[in-house]
Structures are given as C-alpha cells and as structure tokens.
Amino acid sequence: MKLGSIITGFACLALSGVAGAARLMDRMSMVHERFLEDRREALPSLSDPFGVPASARVVLENPRTKFQSAFPWKRNVTATIFWVGELPTENNPTPNTMSAWDQNWQSNFGGYDRPDHREGYLPAGFTPSLNPFYVALPYNDVAKGGVHRPEASQVIPWFWESYRGDGISVCKGRWVAIHHEGKVCYAQWEDVGPFETDHWQYVFGNESARPNRNQSAGIDLSPAVRDFLQLRSGETVEWRFANEREIPKGPWRNWSRDGALPQR
Q1: Are 80 and 234 in contact (CB under 8 A)?
Q2: Are residues 79 and 37 in the same domain?
Q3: Contacts of 212 (CB under 8 A, 6+ apart)
Q4: Rounded distance, CA 218 to CA 80, Å?
Q5: Is the pTM of this model over 0.70?
C-alpha cells in the first residue's frame, strides 16, 4: 500500500470521528436542555413537596363599627302607640299578649303595660321584668317554619355578627333611637308591626312605610317612649338603629321603679 493512500485513510477516519463527536455533542446539548426544562417545571413542587397552601393574605378593611355608627335617620315617619297586653281593635287586629318573638310576652314582661295608668315611665302597680322602652318595626327576620327569611343575611347589616342559629331572631332587642321635637329616646326592638311583617326595603332600605289604616304608620312606640317624647299617637318622628356603645344613660338602660320616674 502506498504511503499516500494510508495518509488519506487516516484523514477520513479523523474527519469521521470529528463529525461523530459533533453529533454526540449536539445530542448531549439537547438532552441537557430537556433536563433543565424538566427541572424548571419541577421547582415549585420541590420547594413545596407536600402542597401546603400559601399563608392567608391579610386584607385590611374599614371596620364594620364605622359602618354601623352611620345608620341613617328615617324621617317623617308616623308613629302609633302600642303596649304589652293590648287586645285586638279595629286599628290593631293582632293581640299583644305575645310578640312575634316571645309567645309569653305579657307574662315575661310581668303584667299589662297599661298606657293610661302610669307611675313615671312604668305601668302602675308593678315593676316590669323587661325594658318598658320598646318599639315594633314592620319586619320579622324569622319566617314560618323557624328559619330566617332568605334575604335576611343580605339586608340586615349586623346579621352575621348576631347570628346564633335558625329560629333565633337577630332583630329582637336591637337598639333604636327615636327623635321628636328636639328630644331623643332610646328603645329596644321587641315586636313586629305596624301591620307589615316583611317590609325590609323600608326597615333597612330607603322605601317609605307602606300605606295602612293608621296613616301609613311605620313604627309602634311603647307608652314609656310616648311619655318620654311627650307625643301623641299619629304624630311623626325620626328613627334610626343605634349601637350598644351609643346608648347614653337614661331610664331605658338602668330602669327601675325609682330610676324610671320622670326627670324634673
């Protein structure tokens, strides 16, 4: 074999080896790139192999108390007088021996809250076991069957703060401020009326009270509220909901036979 042919053969082998090495490097590069891509996709699971949810993000909101302290006044509302133990009449077809939320209202109150026989802000003859400063508004949050009305959780601002289960009213006992000719009285929501039981658009919204035989009355007041404000049934008042912390000292809060006498 000639020397030239031998050299040519070695050269071909060398070139073939170079080409093979290049192809091998390309394959290794592709494999490496795929490996990196797989690692990038796996990084989240590697940093959290057990899939633990991220910590809850704290969202700061305006406190609900700020919202509740701005309950608007409902103005030019006709007020009528009602009382525990009142029997049905043409203008009050529902007896008040029981309330919408208390089947033994008169018994639990301690007797008949006579509107025409008073000792100060209290009925004469006995000291009530319940607050004599009470009102009725035309909405009952508890429907027949002992469940809350479907809209209750949406329209009552304090619903979830006061919720204690189905059949337990979140409205009963809520404080209400009533204004009449420069005087403000505070009372608790203890019954439903006048006439209506589902008018949330008025009680919690912007509607006016619905027409009724008592001059479209929108709130019932107890004799104690009547006497404190010195008003007659059929006159107009302003009212709004109030928070517990807003209620000042007065016969509506720490009441008793002596403490509820008219202030001179």
Answers
A1: yes
A2: no
A3: 194, 195, 196
A4: 8
A5: yes
Instruction: Give the pLDDT confidence of 177-216 residue by residue, as tens digits.
Output: 999 999 999 999 999 999 999 999 999 999 999 999 999 9
Residue 259 placed within a domain = no
Structural domain harbouring 38: 1-47
Residues 88 and 190 in one domain: yes
Q: Is 264 a domain residue? A: no
| pLDDT score for 88 | 79
Instruction: Specify the number of domains making up the chain.
Output: 2
Structure tokens at 258: 């002596």
Whether 105 and 190 map to the same domain: the answer is yes
Structure tokens, 208: 């006016």
Is residue 237 within 8 A of residue 229, CB to CB? The reply is yes
**Digit-coded pLDDT (tens) for 41-51:** 655 555 555 55
pLDDT given for residue 94 in this prediction: 79
CB atoms within 10 A of CB 146: 10
pLDDT per position as a tens digit, 45-83: 555 555 556 665 554 444 454 444 579 999 999 999 999
